# Entry
Amino acid sequence: MTHTADIPRDHERPALPVHLRTALHLIELGLPVLPLREGKVPFGNCRTCKDSACGARPHMKAAGPCECPAPCHGWGAATTDPDILTSPAWARAWRQAAGVAYHPGGGALTVVDLDDTDAVAWARETLPATKTVTTTRGEHWIYLGTMTSHNGVRPGVDIKSAWSYARWLGPGTGRMALLPDAVRAFAVKEPATVRPASGAVVVTAPPGEAVCRHRSPAYLERGIAMGEQRIKEASEAIHRTVYRTFLAVLSAHGWCGCLTENHIGRLFTAAQTKGESLRHCEIAWTNARAKLGM
# Structure
């Protein structure tokens, strides 16, 4: 028999660190998050990962989730997995955290970081209105869509999207708009620009590669079937399995233009059967394309 006195009262249960509570709320919105220490920077790598000895190279624009159980590799540690966020390996970081960051590209977003009043004035004259968050010295303008990140695209303006992180400073005001060409133009010389998740499902062939490089239609069909099976058989780490499966399919079959909405829909359906949302599928697909430079 359980006595009332043996049941922990709410006020006796350990309270979650405030920044961890914020992080858990953000992952419900589909934003991959990580803790920030004083100075608005991620926590340093653990001894195993120091100087990228583990092989991870976030400074070389590596994509995908960090393999380390600790919050290592800057934006690469950002996750939407509540079990990772609340794990013992992350507990010390949350106790010492001075803020929360999120990976915009992993949430199919781009942040135009306006660092001063001149930059804000330029944005108001040049860019379409969107969701706006006030910062210490300027504003974050947040658009729906992903692209490569760039610092110093003009005085006081940075672009934070894929392979980057941005501080969470609140929900902001206004209605989010689609990422405009005026912002994408800052990456015009970059071949690996990522298109918005909602409008970039089918992979088209690069110029000059109209000839299918598959050995036979059965080769593509087998690849899709294997991807479906891999997702369906996953018993844990579903987010990671879906991302890696998408990455494998795109790596083998995504360059000649033979992937159709039907093929990709089958993979998305398999992922959604395992509990993934359509938004998470689109984010994983976008990140996989970014990894391969599509």
Notes: The beta strands are 33-37, 41-42, 99-102, 109-114, 131-134, 139-144, 150-154, 157-160, 166-167, 177-178. The CA atoms of residues 114 and 157 lie 5 Å apart. The chain has nine helices and ten strands.
